[in-house]
Amino acid sequence: MKDIRKDIKETLSNYNLFKTRIKIIKNDLEAFKLIQSCYTNKLTQLGYTKEKKEHLQHELKQLTLIVHNIDNILQRLTIREREIIIKKYILKYTWINIANELQISVKTCQRAEQSALNKIIKILSILNSEVVNNEYS
Known about the structure:
Elements: H1 2-13, H2 15-38, H3 50-75, H4 79-90, H5 95-102, H6 106-135
């Protein structure tokens, strides 16, 4: 259970990194298109190979799915839980800052975080069982 919580916290903490990487990949793919239309013979010299393009497209697809899943899971939390999770893991607030903003105790924030993490674990287990059931249907 601890490893799952750790993985969830790490994934939530990397949310902004995922979104930034998506922007970078989109820019790289756009650059690939521009270079391809103007300088097809220069593509390889500049490091834009078919393999790199395919790799970027694959990474973009994966990261977009992760961000989409995080957004969907956050929507299933209560407003208070969502606010605490976003402030703690995505915006990197301290417990004291969160408590002050929400005008509640640090302990109440931490209890809401634990409740939210438990819900996220349940949501993920339901989603995983749906995937398994669909694979064997």
